[in-house]
Design goal:
197 residues, rod-shaped
Length: 197
């Protein structure tokens, strides 16, 4: 009786092992996508290719992870991409066991611009009449401006960029003569602020 029980038990163990050997393992490719700082990268697109052909696509979740399951053995490629970042490509061969968890780091894409300068373009004119950055204030606008102590130069200086002023401040030129400090508002017809090219 003991011999029969031992033999039966041995046969059942061998049968269970053979059934277990016949069940193929579930093959999985999974991983995590991070940025350069090591933070999770949600929303990255992950493509799975087998032998160069697109198989599946997924998007990383809030923790930056992705998963492809129920795979067959073969040669796989995992492409991870997101606009503004370099595409990452991982190639692997999946056999009887699942590969280890992938850690993918996406790097910011380098922006390259090319500018071609040719000699056919016209030269920049220094003529004030051709300056497109000129701003003019006419007599009506001057009458509407609140000018304190009739100091037109101080009032108009507020329309200028501080970085454009010289070390001595605003320069006033009247009829080609520089350095007049006081000028009556009634003597001014127009004021032109000119960014000299």
């Amino acid at each position: 009786m003991r011999l029969w029980l031992c033999t039966s038990l041995l046969l059942m163990l061998m049968y269970a092992r053979s059934v277990q050997a016949q069940v193929p393992p579930i093959l999985v490719i999974n991983g995590i996508v991070q940025d350069q700082t090591g933070a999770a990268f949600p929303g990255a697109e992950v493509d799975l290719l087998k032998d160069g052909k697109q198989q599946r696509t997924t998007t990383t979740d809030a923790s930056g992870t992705f998963r492809f399951d129920r795979l067959q053995p073969g040669n796989y490629e995992v492409r991870t991409h997101k606009e503004g970042f370099k595409t990452d490509i991982n190639k692997m061969t999946v056999g009887n066991r699942s590969p280890g968890r992938l850690r993918i780091v996406l790097f910011i894409e380098t922006l390259n611009q090319q500018i071609t300068v040719s000699g056919d373009t016209p030269e920049v004119s220094t003529d004030p009449s051709e300056n497109r950055d000129v701003a003019a204030v006419d007599r009506q606008a001057l009458d509407d401006l609140p000018i304190f102590d009739e100091d037109v130069v101080a009032t108009m200086s507020r329309f200028l960029d501080n970085s454009a002023l010289g070390t001595n401040g605003v320069t006033l030129i009247v009829d080609g003569i520089q350095g007049i400090s006081a000028l009556s508002p009634s003597a001014i017809q127009t004021v032109t602020i000119n960014q000299n090219p």
